[in-house]
Amino acid sequence: MSGSSIFIILVSAIFVNNFVLSRFLGICPFLGVSKQVETAMGMGMAVTFVMAMASIITYVAQRFILDKLRIEYMQTIVFILVIASLVQLVEMVIQKTSYSLYQSLGVYLPLITTNCAVLGLTLLNIQNDYNLVELIVHAIGAAIGFTLAIVLFAAIRERMELSDLPVAFKGFPIALITASLMSLAFMGFMGLV
Amino acid sequence: MTIEGILYPVASLGGLGLVFGAGLAYASQKFKVDVDPKVTTIRDLLPGANCGGCGVPGCDSFAKLVSSGEAAVDGCPVGGPELAQKLAEVMGVEVTGSTRQVAKVICNGGSDACKEKFIYNGITDCVAANLVSGGSKSCKFGCLGLGTCKNVCPFGAIEMTEDHLAKIIPEKCTGCLKCVEVCPKNVIVMTPFHQEVVITCNSNDSGKLVRQKCSVGCIGCQICVKACPEGAIDFENNLAFINYEKCTNCYICVGKCPTKAIEGKVKKATEETAVS
């Protein structure tokens, strides 16, 4: 029973309620860091780490601080504090371990701080009343979904660089059209769970 | 409203902030990345215009390249020789003598010298005017004088003269090439900063046509080619060219040119050239 519900949460987070293409969260890095598959992958990994860590810490903060003190209305601000600190940490680690990735992510790395996908995920976790296992699965699913969307998108954009486009569509216009078509394609998963 | 209503949020948020702050402070020590102090020093010396004139995007990237020795210390066109000297000191190398290049409009055919083909009433922009059968000037090589280069210049080094020509102030020009790229007539070229004698005509028309259209154009008489004692002037496509490496700025060609299509930097030239 619980095994199947966990599977449902995972599939639902990756495909059906894909954070980028169905919930329209985290569009900024989706468009900004999707010029190369490699950087898109790096961004996906960074977001994955932040999402997983943020989910756990916000869950703890919610259950043991906010609920206990009955100050649930502080949820948003506390969550943002958690996410911001985590992003700072990730930034330091990436700068130390992979400088080229740090450079290619550029300004989008600190922008995970205000990435609504991460905040949205943590808020959804609490809203859906997930327990610790479920929310970790949900976080991983959301992160995989985000990575999947951004990497697919980057691959398409890489190909598009080489294709012969009308001048007016070059660059962002065609990227936006592609994003909308991808979103339509992901609507095909609707009703799967 | 109890006191807890204020105390709890403040304490919990403050406490969390404190914990995360301490954690980050610890992490920043642990994951400290050593930045080459040279990069910061060089970055502070650079003008910070981020013009891209050096060929790399932004002063930060240039500072990195200089510090790693991949870019020359005199690579920044904005800073010029003074900056090159400073950077050379930081890097502990000698400045290799490359000359500063500045942009120059090689057309002197203003509205009183060059005839108009028609009256242009369109957008005040050379690129737009050029689309209308090459602009209103009868000479299709000349400066249209609508100020597209002036608008694109980030350093205010271009001004428009009264007879509708662009004029570049060499002292302000940093050689960022923005005007060279934007000019639809390709009438802006790079010349060495210390070059005083420049042929101010861009026309590849034959001498007869030039005479009909413009009173200050190069008519291809080749008097300058013969007169030059250094053999520094070449002739190609109905137009004379000065080889700046050979030119000694003797001003002989300036005096000989029948249409005054060769310009000296200073009008009262001759005495001053003896000094330089």
Task: Tell me what the structure shows.
The complex is a heterodimer of chains A (193) and B (276). Chain A has helices spanning 2-16, 27-32, 37-69, 75-97, 99-105, 116-127, 132-162, 172-186. With 193 residues, chain A is an all-alpha fold. With 276 residues, chain B is an alpha+beta fold. In chain B, 35% of the residues lie in helices and 10% in strands. Chain B has 11 helices and 8 strands. Chain B has helices at residues 4-30, 37-45, 58-67, 80-91, 126-131, 148-152, 178-182, 207-213, 223-227, 252-256, 270-275; strands at residues 101-105, 158-160, 166-168, 188-192, 198-199, 233-236, 239-242, 262-263. In chain B, the strands form 4 sheets. Chain B has a two-stranded antiparallel sheet. A two-stranded antiparallel sheet of chain B has the order 2-3. A two-stranded antiparallel ribbon of chain B has the order 5-8. The longest helix of chain B is centred in the N-terminal third of the chain and has 27 residues, at 4-30. Chain B starts with a helix and ends with a helix. The model of chain B is unreliable at 267-276 (pLDDT under 50). Classes of the chains: A mainly alpha (193), B alpha+beta (276). Chain A binds chain B through residues 61, 65-66, 69-71, 74, 77-78, 81-82, 85, 88-89, 92-93, 95-96, 99, and chain B through 8-9, 12-13, 16-17, 20-21, 23-24, 27-28, 31-33. Chain B: Part of a membrane-bound complex that couples electron transfer with translocation of ions across the membrane. Chain B: This is Ion-translocating oxidoreductase complex subunit B. Chain B: One of its GO terms (molecular function) is electron transfer activity.
